[in-house]
Amino acid sequence: MGKPAIFPLEVRGLSVRLGGHEALRDVSFAFDGRKRVVVLGANGAGKSVLLRTLHGLIAPTAGSIRWANSSQRAASQAMVFQRSVMLRRPALANIAYALAVSGVAEPERSRRAREAIEHVGLAHLSQRQARVLSGGEQQRIALARAWSLKPRMLFLDEPTASLDPAAAGEVERIVTRIHGEGTAVVMTTHNLGLARRFADEIVFLHEGRLTEHTAADLFFTAPASPEAARFLQGELPWSIASQPSSPA
Ligand SMILES: Nc1ncnc2c1ncn2[C@@H]1O[C@H](COP(=O)(O)OP(=O)(O)OP(=O)(O)O)[C@@H](O)[C@H]1O
């Protein structure tokens, strides 16, 4: 028997209030799980809050999130953050720990951890303490950790922020491969080059509101909303903000 469907993901009238601030306002969209979605918007637009809410880390104030017509959070979803927390143990053990927490027993756990670290090209660093790895290597371990869980939905919040171009390119290749193997991907990024190369669809947020959800080529050539046009012309504040670390 095949796995139960988790798509479409349907978001209706989603609002999130945090500390008296309306971070998301009446956001609605649907996602079929096949297109690669990149969420764009100026600083403070609500991109991270949207991903965290979809991943179940923040409770909506209003509205609904439905996975395949169910209000149950989808099983088999994972999230990678701008700076993922590495545990004080070797790189391979960080991946094995995530598998153990999800109930994967030995010897399957070790097999999948090794497969995942090979998948991101870091098998040679298996026994190196994860916390001494470079930022790019830690991000690849975070992706391996998420990938080892075989998620069907992967949320990526600024996965290439603070990385040099070579490390960012490696992360992009890994994410592209993970998507190619059948995992749905929704990503935020401050890297417009990455967004142009990766996205099939753009969700654009402005001050907590979704102002457009459109095919990426159309978005970059003829954005429909004035806010998106100003954003693409560089008129809206947009830089990498420092964000708190979060566990994968
Ligand atoms: N825990 C919180 N309490 C209060 N306000 C919050 C909280 N988390 C986020 N916010 C606010 O919600 C808004 C949206 O934040 P979010 O982190 O989603 O922005 P973003 O689009 O990811 O921005 P950036 O590009 O700067 O990372 C911001 O104004 C932020 O200050």
From TrEMBL:
It comes from Usitatibacter palustris. InterPro entries: AAA+_ATPase, ABC_transporter-like_ATP-bd, ABC_transporter-like_CS, MetN_ABC_transporter-like, P-loop_NTPase. It is found in: Cell membrane. Keywords: ATP-binding, Cell membrane, Membrane, Nucleotide-binding, Transport. Residues 9-232 form the ABC transporter domain. GO terms for molecular function: ATP binding; ATP hydrolysis activity. Belongs to the ABC transporter superfamily. This is Tungstate uptake system ATP-binding protein TupC. It is a peripheral membrane protein. One of its GO terms (cellular component) is plasma membrane. The keyword Ribonucleoprotein does not apply.
